[in-house]
Amino acid sequence: QSGGSLYGIEHANDGLVTFPGGIPIKNSSGEAVGGVGASGSTVDDDHEVAEAGLSTLAPEAVAAD
Predict the structure, then answer these.
(1) Is residue 37 part of a domain?
(2) How does pLDDT run across 16-62, given as a tens digit for each residue?
(3) How far are the Cα atoms of 6, 19, 23, 43, 50 from residue 10, in angstroms, in the given order?
(4) Domain span at residue 30?
(5) Strand 62-63 to strand 32-37: parallel, antiparallel, or no bridges (unpaired)?
C-alpha cells in the first residue's frame, strides 16, 4: 500500500531483496557473493538483526544499501 513500510521494495537493491530482513553481501567489486537474513519480528527488527549478524560474521564484507 502506498506509504506503507514495504511500498516499492521490489525496486530496491537491483531487485535482489524482496523484504527487509535480507541483506545481500557484495565484494569490493560490487558483485553479490551471499546474503544474511532474519525473520519473525517486525521488518525493522528483522533488518536490524540481519545487519548485526553481518557485522559479527563478516565485518569486512560490504553490505548493499
Answers:
(1) yes
(2) 656 678 888 888 888 888 888 898 998 889 989 999 988 887 766 65
(3) 9, 8, 14, 15, 19
(4) 9-63
(5) unpaired
